Task: inverse folding
């Protein structure tokens, strides 16, 4: 392949058994906070991470705003109001439990991270006197300045701070180890989760991890529909190696999933076709509320939810006169009227009114303090912006007081995608959870992106910590259970098989990923029907049965890339099973069928849940409000925490 | 014909995301240790810049540059397809 010698010792034949009270699977934001919580409860914690914990995961390089900090001292909304707004915005297809945890405990976690060394306040008084700053606490807010529940943060300081805390607490960290499967009691699907297997991404060494409880903290699936063999790192919004291993191993172990039929047309993301996230002209999220101008310099007005033109920049931060608060940030697409915030005129309307393409984001006319907080704080602290956008653009001469940045795609989105170019974005499906963030598998907890309807940094940190707390409670009263050696041996055989195959005639990971993605685009695209889905499932099963045994990898790194694609194949099948299970079109799930069954009067939308037992798929339904009373249940399940034992 | 001997048997990459300034880099490998995608490997020659073994896998997070203690030793470069356009506002045609 090339003339270099592999730089790490090869340990294909070596095995290490590691035992702990708690296993944390994945070392992103959720995983770090889960490990910290469990270790603070006196548990012996092992954290296993595919990359390098200090900076890995989607939030490793930074984050600029922390959503839903409803309990911060300046907030004018309650956790109940915010969670209900998020539920309503998605017509109930949202995770009431995890988002209530986010609203209820988000500010506690920020204070926690601050103590670890993360920066959450404008301590240098750079923005003194700004309308978005509370001069007493020095906290800075974004979007809705009247209600102050989204906090601007210096997120590039967070991950290293968490990493130091983990080491201080004595958490044993295994970096560069990919978890490949969950171990269950007696090796049975649906049995208690008693551990996991792993493989070193550099040496190929095999690991058996044993724990009383495990916390699944891996990423949402990716590269299901979107793949570029030339630039696999630019296929999706999440990091290259974050492709949903957790969903795949959970599905195989018998864990229950929901909303896996939901996918959206590719959005604001890095996916090959688009421009760098937060690096092209736009007026959302990090860039809110940049002015947008057309190619003649004419400004596109911001309007209220009722279409009233907002003349002052200050109005872009205020709810409407008869509105309590509005939502902005991540995962707020096509908002419902009740929470809709100020927005520029719609794309179709601007074209009708004769605005000329292309459009540009223009920070030059914003009040200086607003420009400086966008360019230099938000762009700088948001993930993947400090170096590739802020530093590089500045060095190439971009000056936000003088220059305007082009918008791409339909107006100001960073690209325009085809209908079949889909991704799991905007509150996608995942593991089903109860009020302790436990899955249906005893001993397996879940947090962050693994949860169904996950979204942002704050959600990951809060659910991570919460799952850590509850898993610790479980581990206090449950023993380590002996592993099933048969299950381990089978897994070992599976993960090592490709290194014995002949590269001359076999298939590599890129070819396989491309095959899966094309199959998914063809058979599980925007418009779905039983016939297409069934052919798609057959194709994927053929891949699983005939192609996987004929794949190869040159070294441990490429083996890990290949095992990831095996997981992509598993998740693709889960998505098709879920799509087959939902018989009617559902707008909030972005799920369209051209053979949709007629909706009966009095029909109530429900979650559809799927799990496997004896490799057969079991389908169930669950009411959208299965979590019950948010506040009441939260307080029942977290009595100690509510009393102040954090 | 002599030149063909210098070819390395690998495909032309679609991007060249990480460029080392070989005069500045001291080969400490901090970037190799921090890269979550693990696309870099240490140079077999001690003290030399790491090798970008899997350039296509780069996610462009910039953590290698953030971790590097020598200003200018590493440049992160978006591929051409991801380089954006800007213009001085007063150059726009009214």
Result:
């Amino acid at each position: 392949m090339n003339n270099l010698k592999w730089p790490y010792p090869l340990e294909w034949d070596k095995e290490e058994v590691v035992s702990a009270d708690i296993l944390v699977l994945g070392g992103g934001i959720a995983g770090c906070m889960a490990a910290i919580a469990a270790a603070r409860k006196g548990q012996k914690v092992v954290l296993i991470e595919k990359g390098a914990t200090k900076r890995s995961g989607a939030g490793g390089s930074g984050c600029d705003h922390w959503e839903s900090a409803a309990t911060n001292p300046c907030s004018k909304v309650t956790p109940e109001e915010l969670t209900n707004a998020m539920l309503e915005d998605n017509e109930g297809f949202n995770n009431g439990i995890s988002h209530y945890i986010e609203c209820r405990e988000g500010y506690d976690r920020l204070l926690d991270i601050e103590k670890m060394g993360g920066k959450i306040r404008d301590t240098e008084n750079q923005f003194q006197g700004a309308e978005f700053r509370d001069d007493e606490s020095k906290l800075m807010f974004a979007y809705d300045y009247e209600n102050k529940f989204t906090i601007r943060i210096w997120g590039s300081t967070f991950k290293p701070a968490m990493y130091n805390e983990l080491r201080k607490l004595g958490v044993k960290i295994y970096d560069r180890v990919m978890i490949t499967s969950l171990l269950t009691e007696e090796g049975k699907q649906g049995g208690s989760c008693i551990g996991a297997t792993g493989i070193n991404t550099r040496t190929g060494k095999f690991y058996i991890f044993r724990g009383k409880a495990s916390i699944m903290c891996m990423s949402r699936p990716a590269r299901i529909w979107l793949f570029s063999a030339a630039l696999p790192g630019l296929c999706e919004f999440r990091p290259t190696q974050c492709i949903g291993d957790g969903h795949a191993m959970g599905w195989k172990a018998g864990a229950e999933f929901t909303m896996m039929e939901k996918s959206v047309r590719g959005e604001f993301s890095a996916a090959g076709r688009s421009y760098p996230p937060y690096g092209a002209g736009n007026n959302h999220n990090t860039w809110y509320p940049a002015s947008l101008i057309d190619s003649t310099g004419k400004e596109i007005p911001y309007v209220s939810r009722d279409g009233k033109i907002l003349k002052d920049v200050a109005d872009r931060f205020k709810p409407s006169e008869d509105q309590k608060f509005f939502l902005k940030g991540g995962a707020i697409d096509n908002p419902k009227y009740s929470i809709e915030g100020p927005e520029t005129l719609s794309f179709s309307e601007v074209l009708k009114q004769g605005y000329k393409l292309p459009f540009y984001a223009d920070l030059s006319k914003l009040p200086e303090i607003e420009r400086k907080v966008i360019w230099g704080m938000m762009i700088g602290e948001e993930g993947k912006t400090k170096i590739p956008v802020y530093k590089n653009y500045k060095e190439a001469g971009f000056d936000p007081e003088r220059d305007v940045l082009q918008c791409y795609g339909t107006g100001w989105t960073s690209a325009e995608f085809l209908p079949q170019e889909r991704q799991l974005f905007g509150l996608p499906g995942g593991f089903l959870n109860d009020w302790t963030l436990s899955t249906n598998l005893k001993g397996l907890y879940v947090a962050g992106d693994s949860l169904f309807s996950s979204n942002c940094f704050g959600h990951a940190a809060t659910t991570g910590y919460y799952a850590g707390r509850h898993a610790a409670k479980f581990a206090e009263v449950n023993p380590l259970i002996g592993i099933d050696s048969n299950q381990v041996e089978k897994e070992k055989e599976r993960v090592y098989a490709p290194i014995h195959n002949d590269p001359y005639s076999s298939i590599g990971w890129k070819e396989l990923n491309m095959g899966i993605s094309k199959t998914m685009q063809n058979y599980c695209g925007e418009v779905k029907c039983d016939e297409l889905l069934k052919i798609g499932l057959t194709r994927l099963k053929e891949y699983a049965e005939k192609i996987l045994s004929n794949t190869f990898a040159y070294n441990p790194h490429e083996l890990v890339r290949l095992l990831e694609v095996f997981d992509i194949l598993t998740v693709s099948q889960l998505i098709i099973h879920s799509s087959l299970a939902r018989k009617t079109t559902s707008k909030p799930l972005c799920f369209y069928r051209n053979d949709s069954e007629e909706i009966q009067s009095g029909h109530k939308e429900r979650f559809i849940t799927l799990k496997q037992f004896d490799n057969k798929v079991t389908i169930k339904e669950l009411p959208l409000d299965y979590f019950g009373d948010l506040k009441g249940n939260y307080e029942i399940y977290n009595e100690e925490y509510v009393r102040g034992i954090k | 014909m002599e030149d063909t001997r210098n070819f390395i048997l690998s495909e032309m990459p679609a991007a060249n995301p990480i460029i080392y300034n070989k005069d500045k880099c001291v080969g400490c490998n901090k970037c190799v240790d921090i890269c979550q995608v693990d696309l870099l490997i240490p140079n077999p020659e001690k003290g030399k810049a790491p090798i970008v073994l899997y350039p296509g896998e780069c996610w462009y997070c910039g953590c290698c540059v953030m971790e590097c203690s020598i200003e200018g030793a590493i440049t992160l470069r978006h591929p051409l397809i991801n380089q954006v356009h800007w213009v001085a506002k007063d150059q726009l045609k009214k």
User: Anything to note?
Assistant: The domain at 13-91 of chain B is CATH 3.30.70.20 (Alpha-Beta Plaits). The helical segments of chain B are 30-34, 63-67. The first helix of chain B runs from residue 30 to 34. The beta strands of chain B are 18-20, 40-41, 51-52, 74-76, 86-88.
